[in-house]
Amino acid sequence: MVGIPVITTNREYHKEFGSWSKETNPTLEQEYWAARGMPPMEVFRNLETRRLICVDKHSMSNWSRKLVQILTRDLVFEAEKIFVWKNLKSINGSNNLNYI
């Protein structure tokens, strides 16, 4: 995210950010000449779009938020399992229940 166009043949990168040449499977030469031939403002707009994708999908705050969502979801699931187990135990009146 330093404002320099990335010229690559990496397909995953192209899926995420697009290619300069708009080709499905571009060569490095096609990518280079496509980026080089763009007007400076178009290059800037493309770089800004890619920067926003990075911030949205790959920033530390985003990773932290997703981690908290996963951990919270798992904690809620565990709490629900314990609640169900305790209720089944009280209904059955037995300590002989397997943990769900």
Alpha plus pi helix count:
4
Helix content: 55-70%
Calculate Rg over CA atoms: 25 Å
The ordered string of helix (H) and strand (E) elements is HHHH
Give an overview of the whole structure.
By secondary structure, the chain is an all-alpha fold. It has 4 helices and no strands. It has helices at residues 11-17, 28-37, 40-58, 60-92. The longest helix has 33 residues, at 60-92. The radius of gyration is 25 Å and the shape is elongated. 4% of the residues are buried. The mean pLDDT is 82.
Short description:
It contains 4 helices and no strands.
Itemize the secondary structure elements and their pairings.
Blueprint (H helix, E strand, L loop, with lengths): L10 H7 L10 H10 L2 H19 L1 H33 L8
Helix pairs in contact: 3-4
What attributes does this structure have?
mainly alpha; 100 residues; 4 helices; elongated
